[in-house]
Automatic annotation (TrEMBL):
The keyword Ubl conjugation does not apply. SUPFAM superfamilies: S-adenosyl-L-methionine-dependent methyltransferases. It comes from the Bacteria. GO terms for biological process: methylation. Pfam families: NNMT_PNMT_TEMT. This is Methyltransferase NNMT/PNMT/TEMT. NCBIfam families: SCO2525_fam (NF040568).
Length: 249
């Protein structure tokens, strides 16, 4: 896979230079899910992770009010460099995403400036999603947006990617994920990247063994961000308290 050739600037310019209706809808769902969870918990700051962060900061912003540290976990060297360059003071285009979040009281009441909080909280780590198996239960809140289905054409690898993400979370941790529905692959800059053809059924099946009380829903927003997919799916819920029993061999 040519991940070193991934062009984060082209990706941001195409997807995140302005706030699109799909992302606004995702932000509403995620902020309400996380806001309600942490309103009920009443405990101190936690550790968060965004798996396959890519060149997208808004999943980390969605976890910001409740985290003492957030790991942006990313494989592509080009994306790692982009993320590292955003930590000290992220670009102005991300303000519009924060504006959607801060309409919720949990975000609007954040005492610190979000850029200062982002700089204090976020660290970037280069790594492979499949290597997270050695760090099970490490994080207490997590996001994974457009990753498992956008790194491979294999349904087996897609399901394993979802599993690795969820197993990295502690029991009961809230999570939010997003998927491109029936994607046929995508271009970033001059390079083409494969995708796994998944719908609501495949997303639900991948989450079922490792999550509880989760919801899977197709976005209402129908505008096409790019060619080669039929819609977007958001799934959010909580890490299961236990995993399925392994049959005796």
């Amino acid at each position: 896979m040519r991940w070193a050739a991934f062009d984060p600037i082209a990706y941001v310019n195409h997807n995140y230079r302005r706030l699109q209706a799909e992302d606004a809808e995702i932000l509403h769902l995620v902020r309400d899910h996380f806001g309600e969870h942490f309103r009920k918990q009443g405990f101190g700051p936690v550790s968060g992770i965004d798996v396959g962060a890519g060149a997208n900061l808004y999943p980390a912003l969605a976890m910001l009010p409740w985290c003492e540290d957030i790991t942006l976990f990313e494989r592509s060297p080009a994306n790692v460099r982009y993320l590292a360059g955003q930590v000290d003071s992220y670009d102005p285009n991300w303000d519009q995403f924060w504006d959607v979040l801060r309409a919720h009281e949990s975000y609007g009441s954040l005492d610190a400036d979000p850029r200062e909080e982002f700089r204090r909280t976020v660290r970037v780590e280069q790594g492979d999603i499949f290597d997270l198996g050695s760090r099970e239960g490490r994080w207490s809140v997590g996001t994974m947006f457009f990753v498992a289905e956008s790194m491979t054409a294999s349904h087996q690898e897609f399901a394993l990617g979802v599993e690795r993400f969820l197993r990295a979370l502690a029991p009961g941790a809230p999570f939010a994920t997003a998927f491109m529905e029936h994607s046929t692959g995508y271009h970033t800059g001059e390079h083409f990247f494969p995708a796994c053809d998944v719908g609501e059924y495949e997303v639900r099946a991948s989450l079922e063994p490792f999550a509880r009380d989760f919801k899977v829903q197709r976005l209402e927003s129908a505008a096409s961000v790019r060619d080669g997919y039929s819609g977007m799916i958001v799934a959010y819920g909580w890490r299961a308290n236990s995993d399925p029993a392994v049959p005796a061999g």
